[in-house]
Amino acid sequence: MANTQPMAVVVSSDVERGQMLDTRGTAPSRLTWVVTPLAAIIVRAIKAYLQTLVGLMTAAGFGVEIGTVPAGTSGFLELFLAKLAACSTIALVPAGMSVLSNLLILFTQLGDRFPTLKA
Question: DSSP label at 44?
Fold first, then answer.
């Protein structure tokens, strides 16, 4: 019996959602779940944002100064929210770079697939 566990595949011209992919040897066939390039870029950007946010908040928790804290911030919750706001803003940069990097890869692959577009 074939393994019906979904497998993410970046979309290709010859693979459709729900198509069974035959694998070599004794490995079970896989049911595909097609991911469009735009969805993959968005997921990668969100991952980069969240990884950076968690790293910055961890550093802030160990006493590293991240950004500036507004004057008059006294309570723990106020301080935490101020640092969270600063870290959230800073974490946008790696997410943006991830989007640009993935778009560059996508356009490179499109250029390789359609050489007439390179001119």
Answer: H
Q: Are 73 and 82 in contact (CB under 8 A)?
A: yes
Element (H, E) at 50: helix 37-61
To the nearest 10 degrees (0 to 180), the angle between helices 37-61 and 76-90 is 140
Q: Which of 43, 45, 62, 56 is nearest to 90 (CA)?
A: 56
Burial of 59 (0-12, 13-18, 19+ CB in 10 A): middle
- End-to-end, the C-alpha distance of the chain in Å comes to 50
Q: Centre a 10 Å sphere on the Cβ of residue 39 and count the other Cβ atoms it contains.
A: 13
**The two structure tokens encoding residue 106:** 């996508």
Name the pTM for this structure. Answer: 0.68
Q: Which pLDDT score is estimated for 21?
A: 62
List the domain boundaries for the chain. Answer: 1-35, 37-118
